[in-house]
Amino acid sequence: MGGSNAAAITVVVVTWEGANLLPACLDAIMTQTLGPDLVDVLVVDNASTDATAEVLRRYPAVRVVTSRRNLGFAGGVALAQRQVATPYAALVNNDAELAPDALERMLAVVDGPGGERVGAVTARVLLAERFAPAPGAGPDQSGVVTASDGSTFRPAVDGRVDLLNSTGNVVRTDGFGQDRDWLAVDDGSRASGHVFGFTGAAALLRVAAIADAGGIDDRFFMYYEDTDLSWRMRLAGWEVRYEAGAVVRHQHSRSSREGSTLFRFHDDRNRLLTLTKDASRGLALRAVARYPLTAMSVVTRSDHRGADAGVRAKVLASYLRMLPGTLRRRREIGRLAAVRGITRRQVEALLVPVPSRPTGAYRRS
User: Fold this and answer.
1) pLDDT tens readout for residues 16-54
2) pLDDT (tens digit, 9 = 90+) per residue, 211-262?
3) What pLDDT does residue 135 have?
4) DSSP classification of residue 161
5) How, if at all, do strands 131-133 and 152-155 pair?
6) Distances (CA, A) of 228 to 84, 200, 249, 256, 362
7) Inter-residue contact 122 to 230 (CB < 8 Å)
8) What are the CA-CA distances from residue 97 to residues 212, 240, 247, 249 (Å)?
9) Does 136 reside within a domain?
10) Number of domains in the chain
11) What is the DSSP string of 269-337?
12) Could you tell me if 118 and 74 lie in one domain?
């Protein structure tokens, strides 16, 4: 697999210290039903110091680009973009495993009737674990997952319940992005169709749409880069679709634990940068103005005030340093959208209401 001039898809896998994850990920890619002549595989190694190089030597058909430093997911994808010569690129996390027909099903959406303006297809991403009901489990019990409907589950080898990680990304009317259907029980009720954005865990992108939107923002390092690119694709006149038949299992937050300092810094900062670049002026200004106020409220109620205050201060300092370049990019995006007759308000008609209650939490032991 890989390297053929007739290849249709370049599968991009960005990895850092993921030697234990890569074999399952690459084995699933190498056995896709599309066949070896249609799929090129490119791994970006973000300066790993584990056994990643040794693992990759076992896959001679895989092209490898090695970075001298850790560029994060966004920087790794940006580095890979320069090596992609196929009309489509698939982003697959190193902790994700594609079902055998996942790429074929996503390709059918962009290549099929009505797919001409589809810039991205996002997969049906399930949490890797299977689950069993855990009735009566306390909210702080180790390993218990609270699903979005309030029911509780625990990982089980013989479990029969799948929980959704994502059916695409949505943005709420308050400017927060989130995985659609996060921690919902996978009962097959979410039909294929339009969604605001793709998830970087597993998606097929049209290379022309990526270029049209200005490419991935490598400054983001990780988090919100998929929502940002999806938003800019829509401002450039492209659609994003969800394909329920393209199934992927994902070990959520293996590279960066959700709730960690690293997660909170990039998640907060990149949300503000995304809104500053892509959103209407009113939405962007409200979100940026609200951040210091909500930060103070969170810090006041926190048991770790010093650490929390430090993270939020770093978020604001980094955001302000990046603001001049972000405003220049905002003006460029606005000009290109105007040429296509698209307004930011039109795209924001796709935003979803803020939920009346929080979505479920995924707790690991």
Assistant:
1) 999 999 999 999 999 999 988 999 999 999 999 999 999
2) 999 999 999 999 999 999 999 999 999 999 999 999 999 997 655 555 578 8
3) 84
4) B
5) antiparallel
6) 21, 11, 24, 20, 24
7) no
8) 29, 22, 9, 5
9) no
10) 2
11) HHHHHHHHHHS-HHHHHHHHHHHHHHHHHHHHH-S-HHHHHHHHHHHHHHHHHHHHHHHHHHHHHHHHH
12) yes
Tell me whether strands 118-127 and 164-166 are parallel, antiparallel or unpaired.
Answer: antiparallel
| Half-sphere exposure in the Cβ direction for 177 (13 Å, CA) | 28
Choosing from 198, 224, 250, the residue where a domain stops is: 250
* Tens digit of each residue's pLDDT (9 = 90 or more) over 195-207: 999 999 999 999 9
Residue 138 lies in a domain: no
Which domain, by its residues, includes 214? 9-130+157-250
Whether residue 222 is found in the same domain as residue 279: no
Exposed, middle or buried by CB within 10 Å (0-12, 13-18, 19+), for 342? Answer: middle
Q: End of a domain among 216, 250, 284?
A: 250
Closest of 190, 191, 214, 210 to residue 200, by C-alpha: 210
**Residue 2 domain flag:** no
Cite the beta strand spans of the chain per DSSP E: 9-15, 39-45, 63-66, 88-92, 96-98, 118-127, 131-133, 145-146, 152-155, 164-166, 169-171, 177-179, 193-194, 202-206, 239-250
pTM to 2 decimals?
Answer: 0.92
